[in-house]
Automatic annotation (TrEMBL):
Function as written in the Swiss-Prot or TrEMBL entry: Component of the exocyst complex.
Database matches in Pfam families: Exo70_C (PF03081), Exo70_N (PF20669)
A molecular-function term among this protein's GO annotations: phosphatidylinositol-4,5-bisphosphate binding
GO-annotated biological processes: exocytosis; protein transport
Region (Disordered): 165-187
Protein name: Exocyst subunit Exo70 family protein
Amino acid composition bias (Basic and acidic residues), ranges on this chain: 173-187
Gene Ontology cellular component annotations, sorted alphabetically: exocyst
Domain Exocyst complex subunit Exo70 C-terminal: 269-624
Family: Belongs to the EXO70 family.
Keywords recorded for this protein, A-Z: Exocytosis, Protein transport, Transport
Amino acid sequence: MDALAQRVSALRASLQSSQGNTEGMVAILGSFDQRLSELEATIHPIQVRAHATQMAHENIDKAIKVADDILAQVVIVREAEATILRGPHVDLESYLKAVGHLKDAVGFFSSRENFTSKERFLNDVNALLSKSSLIIEEEFKRLTTTYSKPIEGDLILGSPPKLQWASDGDAEADGRNSAHSEHPSKDLETAICRTPALIPSRILPLLHTIAQKLVQDGNQQSCYKIYRDARRSALELNLRKLGVERLSKDDVERMQSDALEAKIGKWSKYLQITVKLLDGERKICDEVFEGISFNKDQCFSELAGTGVSVAKTLLSFGDAVAKSKRSPEKLFVLLDMYEVMHEVRSEVEVIFQDSSCSEMREAALGLMKLLAQTAHEMFVDFEELVENDTSKTNVHDGTVHPLTIRVINHVKFLFDYQLTLKLLLQEFETGSDTESQLTVVLTKIMQALQNNLDGKSNQYKDPALMSIFLANNIHYMVSSVRRSEAKHILGDDWIQRHRRIVQQHAKQYKMVAWGKAVQTLSIQVASSSGTSASSDLSSSGVSRAMIKERFKSFNMQFEELCAKQSLWTIPDQELRETLRLSIAEVLLPAYMSFVKRFGNLVENEKKPHKYLKYQPDELDQLLGEFFEGQQSVEQKK
């Protein structure tokens, strides 16, 4: 218990000591709190002054930054002003960037509410922007005007045509000596017809950029008017050079064929030039205003007004030709015109694709259809014209008839238009390829010519001359086909078949013309071997008087044949020599044999030359003068 009591006493003493320590610590901490309060009261004014100083520095920094920003914008505006005053022609990209900087400056100053000089700066910048708009508009006008100059037609056609609509007198001076000796459209084959570069390619992006800027700035009407007026003026100048005149159907029918050919040749060039110019205008209009909210179709429609007017005049001329009086020769001018219309068809459809141009598009396509219809009818009907030809031209010497020459020339010219004719036949014929259709029509034409020649041959009372006439004309047909593209269409079978017809007429001629003369030289004498003709006359029934009569008869027949047939004409040397040789092959052996057998019976006569009038080589020489014609005989005289 004592020990326990001691422990309790010790614990109590410890607790008392701890309480004292606690009270001491509380007293110490209390003194610290008092001192901190005093310190805080001392520091607070310092803290307030420091915060105020910090806020002042921040406001100064902000003011400096605002001043720097304003100064930077002023510098930018001044630099932009210098760029704008230099103009966009120096550097368009820099110019447009400068305009953008000005617009940014407007936005910058507009947001600076406390900037006392804001209004002055905004007025200056807006005035500069207005000036820049006028300058860029002037630049657009300068570019479109500078590069809207007329161009020469040879830059379109690739040849130097005289861009003047020829008068009838001019056409006669062109040197055409016969109808269709030259075809105007064929002159164009050597020319490369192309869409002209109306504006240099390097300028088009500049115009596009400026147009885009003008439209964005709300100057669409100015842009529209400037472009339309400049391009319309250039187009008018280009087309004015053509001097196209309006001609009616009556005007066309009054024209001589040469004059009409000349006009159609120029019509083809003028139409191609007009279409190419309009095509060029459509393309640059599309390129300049590509991707821009702009009524480019309406703009093109208005600037192309003059071109459309010229095109309408040209189409009306084509319509007048198609509806004028028909003739075989006119087929070729229709084919020329159809060919040109077919070539420009795709461009016409693109140029006049807009609904506002539909009338022009339909007129062009309508003319092409009319030309095709008329040309097709004339092509097919030519067979009937040939077969029913009743021309009264008399060919007294049996030479090639003018009808044959005209028809063969017609056929030859048709082969210059093979591709065009095939296009034509594709529009109207179905069920077979165009080449076989072409073969059928041409075969019918040639047969119609042959039938007509058979009828014309009946005017000859001399059967021999009739055969010469038919041989001449059929041979002319065959040789012409062989030397032309027609041989690929009509074929070798046609050529060989008609060569045999020529041979049949030649054989018929030889039999009719020379049969009697050869028969005169033919006497059957039954004489024994080794016995002379004179010693056996009584036994053979052949008298000296008969032989003399035969010589006289042959001489008279030969002279008569010489007189007639030296006036006949075989213009083809090959046929002429062939017929001469065929005569000589029959006549000379018969004559030489007759002279050898019976010549001694007349040699002792007082006038032997009365009977033995010709030596074989003399006959051969005279045969060489056959078929030369009246002109050759007169020249020899």
